[in-house]
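Ticket #4471: structure export looks truncated?
Reporter: QA, pipeline team
Priority: medium

Steps to reproduce: submit the single chain below to the structure queue and open the exported record.
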Amino acid sequence: MRKLLLSTAAIIVCFTIGCSSSSTPTTTADSAGSRDEQTSSEAETSGDNQTIEGETQTDPDVIDVAQTNPLENIGELELIASDFGFLEGPVYRSDEDALYFSDIAANTIFRRGDDGIIAPFRENQPTNGLVFDSQNRLLIATQSGRTLSRLDESGSIMVLADRFNEALLNSPNDIALHTNGDVYFTDPPYGIDPELSDVGCAGVYRLQADGNLSRFWCNGIDTRPNGIAFSPDQETLYVAFTRSGQILRWSVAQDGSTGEMDTFVTTAGGADGMVIDGNGNLFITSRAGIEVFAADGTRWGEISVPEQTTNCTLGGAEGKTLFITGRTSLYSVQLQ
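Actual output as written to the record:
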């Protein structure tokens, strides 16, 4: 059991570019006049930033004044617990008021209950991305286990996918669910030696409810598809690419099939997990902490976190608590 830490990290909420501090976690909202300039600067200074072949960056639309900045009046960043190995995959289960998250290094899924106590939920379990399906069964991207699996009510693990066209998957990383029961997941090579990839590329897959596994993205092993999430209407699927820092998006038909793809935005680099709120705002983990974008590409700003972030999810009362996994620590911040 992890010792619950009572200390909190101070966060300064500011809405002009010049008020951030290098020593204190901050929330920064971009001014409309400098947004495009800052995005361009971030793309130029990111060492790993590269344009995926065949794709061009689309300029964000002009800000819609009717939109509400989700960073306005947010609370302080709270450090919940630390001293983990490498955290990932937070998912909130509302009927239990509980947060589940992965410690990849410890091969353990942890659970934080409504009493705030953090305890191992499942040990000796390769793990990364987590999500509960409509029957509250836990789906697990096992990463080093090289499978997409499901923890059934009996406690047994069922492998849902481990091969594509007879080739072993790389290391399933993150998961998104369609309301029709289809499961979408990313498959970078983080859990294996990239040179030993059996499928030969980094991929993004769709596992249909009938068991059919298809792949709608297959590119160089170093493209590193990572976080994945649906828009609220499920008409758009977003995927974060860690190496380039880009967020690509696919149109999705009612039957779950994917259509046209383009580049949505480019982050500060190191794009990882993400979550999307009911208004379509994307909260994306990156080198900047948590970068926040509107559905039209407007960059609202960022939430600074005192270590590299890996993933995030929404939970708590009315889904207004943003839970954040850093590499070694768990954080939260209250949204309005």
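Status: closed, not a bug. The export was complete when the record was re-opened. Leaving a note from the reviewer for reference: The chain has one domain: 12-334.
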